[in-house]
Amino acid sequence: MSSAISQSVAAQKTFFIETWGCQMNDLDTQRMSGHLKLRGYRRVNDESSADLILLNTCSIREKSEHKMFTRLGYLRELKQQKGIRIGVCGCVAQQEGEAILSRAPFVDFVIGPGNVGHLDSVLDGDTRVAVDFPQDRRYDYLSLDRSSAVRAQVTIIEGCNKNCTFCIVPTTRGREVSRPFDDILCEVEHAISTGRGEIELLGQTVNAYTCPSSGRDFADLLRNVAGLAGVHRLRFITSHPAEVTSGMIGAIRDHDNISRFLHLPVQSGSSSVLRRMKRLYTRERYLEIVAEIRREVPDVLFSTDIIVGFPGETEKDFAETLSLLEEVRFGSFFAFKYSPRPGTAAPRIGSPVDDAIASERLVRLFALQESIEQETLRNYLGTTQEVLYEGPSRHDEAMSSGKSDHNWTVNFSVPARPEVGTMVQVLIREVRHHSLRGEAVT
Ligand code: SAM
């Protein structure tokens, strides 16, 4: 590096972002990072060398909030040593707003998810707390600092209109706002032009998408995005069971490049719990939806989210969750102990489940899923899977690594490393704990 360039790099302001939570938070980080780079900042991986530190927080469970205040305690010391700026972003920012400044006055600004496109207002000091939901969301995909060279996440709908009684998302991310259909297609085309052949459409209830001007729905969008040249694999997350339509299933069936991995959160296997959660479907309806999808798309693999210890959950309710797992045979899942959230209805509609009981249920749930997952993984032995090559394996440099259509990490040997982003056919030879191993075949 010439000395003039190294001096200008040294003079450049730096930022560090820490991200917790869901894919939407990940994408918000990519948006803020891209915007800061446009303003001349350089991203660093070490917070002690940053001039600006952003905590992009999650409030889905209480633990994440505690974690944030603990982190702020540490950053306060860093701020005392050197004059850094600290911004709290994400869902805890939205939920707590001004209260963060009362508890941690050394924080420079607080900005919620609805204001990610208005980062300048807090950076420039026009406001210290930006937690409204502006009409104009300013979504500048051209400046996105994409986190993956092979995959592009594309928001299609923000917010959530469901009122699940356990969930804080409608408070922290506001009402549903779908992006215009053509904007989404332009962003996907742009992502393809940068070499990203895997597209992941994002929304809290991604399948509630409706174009604000034309009324075109999620099925239309799937068909149009899947039809674009260069889209090798199309994923989307998170689908709500009550929004699954025959049009959406038909679009998946008709397009081989739409992933056969479907995340469909069920939350509980008990209709009584589902009613109190206001999930808008029963156990029977959920199983019907799964059966309908399997009829049309036989090679689909489902994953799900489960909450244990929801207020009033009995041992019988929990047994129904276990039996639902046995019946559907999800490839993978996320399971959480219920955590009461401010302003939600759940704490008022059932008596709390003893923490030790909820913990014990969670352990049983994981044990059952572990055995189902191992059995699922064994089914791939001897099959050939299409793998999107992402780079050397993290644990074994000699192996190459990528994701299969069913979202498994596949580590494989190959005589000559392909270009990152290439689809490779891999013969599966071995099953590991949560991954597969094999060798590339021509
Ligand atoms: N919008 C999606 C939906 O409705 O399925 C996902 C929302 S959230 C980001 C992801 C998961 O967190 C939920 O599916 C749920 O299982 C879990 N979750 C949400 N609120 C929770 C709470 N209060 N306690 C425990 N888990 C919770």
Spatial separation of the terminal alpha carbons: 42 Å
| Amount of helix | 25-40%
Let me know the average pLDDT: 95
User: How many helices?
Assistant: 14
Sheet with the most strands, sense and barrel status: 6 strands, parallel
* Alpha-carbon Rg, integer: 23 Å
What characteristic shape results from the CA principal axes?
Answer: globular
Care to count the β-strands?
19
Question: Can you tell me the residue ranges where pLDDT is under 50 for at least 5 consecutive residues?
Answer: 1-5
List of distinct ligands in this structure: S-adenosylmethionine
Q: Helix/strand/pairing class, anyone?
A: alpha/beta
Strand content: 15-25%
Strands side by side in the biggest sheet? 2-1-3-4-5-6
Describe the structure.
The protein is 36% helix and 21% strand. The protein has 442 residues and is α/β, with parallel strands linked by helices. It has a 6-stranded parallel sheet with strand order 2-1-3-4-5-6, with helices on both faces. A 5-stranded mixed barrel has the order 15-16-17-19-18. A 3-stranded parallel sheet has the order 7-10-11, with helices on both faces. Strand 15 and strand 16 form a beta hairpin. Helix 9 packs parallel to helix 10 and helix 13 packs parallel to helix 14. The chain is globular and about 60 Å long. The N terminus is likely disordered. The structure holds S-adenosylmethionine (SAM). The site of S-adenosylmethionine has 20 residues, from strand 13.
Short description:
The protein has helices at 3-11, 23-38, 62-81, 90-96, 98-103, 119-123, 169-173, 181-193, 218-226, 246-254, 271-277, 283-296, 315-328, 355-378, and strands spanning 14-19, 42-43, 52-57, 85-89, 109-111, 129-130, 151-155, 157-158, 177-178, 198-202, 233-237, 261-263, 301-308, 332-337, 384-392, 400-404, 409-413, 423-431, 435-440.
